[in-house]
Amino acid sequence: MAGNKNTKYDGMSASKAKRERAKDEREQAKRSASINKAIGIGIVVVIAALIGAAFGRSWYIEKNKTVASTDYSAMLNDDGTIKDVNVTDYVKTFDVNAVKLAKADVEYTDEKMQEDINAQLENHRVLNADTALAVKDGDVVNIDYVGTIDGTEFDGGSAQGYDLTIGSGSFIDNFEQQLIGAHPGDQLTVNVTFPEEYPNNPDLAGKAAAFAVTVNGIKELPEFNDEFVKANLADYAQTAEEYKQYLRDTNYQNNLNSAVSKYISDNISADNYPTAYLKQLKALQMTLNEEEFNYMAQMYAQYGMNFSYGSAMEYKGAANTAEYEKVLEDEAKQFCLNNMAYQDLAAQAGIAITDEDYEAFKTENSLTEEIETTYGRPYLIQQYILPEKVETYIAEHAVVE
Which is more confident, 64 or 135? Predict the structure, then answer.
């Protein structure tokens, strides 16, 4: 028939063509079965590989996961340097004798000094009970008060000797404004309404309250003079001018120390880290994290607050072991960088910690035998004595401009 394609069976007798077709169909079935089997085997192999990879990764993480260590001085020499590590192979620092600091980061201005003096005056306000005085906006008023709702006192509504700054908005409604014009010794009733939403105490929300208030006096700023210094700041100076000089000296030095510390952190780096030492630091960091977690949990419990973390890993924001290992490594790298940098800077400056330095550190910090045993002399030197020596050296040799 027109349109039919020629086939291998054309020209054969009907019975032979039938046998050939049956034979070909059997061969095709065998080929299809082989292909399907191969595909099936391939899928199984892929699945097995994926399972094996996942298992292998889990096995690797489990086998190599960090185990907390409390051997703080492990891998340290007696002088606090890192054992068997040439830090210059890893860390990049700077010329310890060529540090320049910005004057703006170090100087202690007269304006800042006046702010600090004003803060001392605020802390030592004097109660003036002169009945001729009248409360005005901005005054600090010392009051006693008792709050009632429908004639009944409520919890948290009473206080004695409370210092309230008029206009601060720290009390509800217009409580503070109703005290304006009152005199020391006055007793008055202040009427207020609690907000409709009052999360501090939902039971009071939207309710009207009356406060019986006694104005004890107005807290006034004292004058900054020699008498004030002798009465309140005698640990630092005996005269007003001596105290000003104390502020200049101590704050300049504090600013200088902070600038040096920031300069160091901004100018050190490392492209790689000593493997064994980094592993040790991860183990120490895990211990430090657990100590911090336990401290925070105890503090929250002490104040009756909910601490929502169940482990140090959760507290550090890690969802699983792999994530926590990354957190530990990042923390350990920063730890390692600082340790190597300070060791390099100390070597540049020719700083070596002596027995006298260590004994002085113990005395100044009232170091107990327990602490010394826990951390070890090498760790204490590395973490406290050496960095202080390095920063002091840089502060003494830096150019401030």
Answer: 135
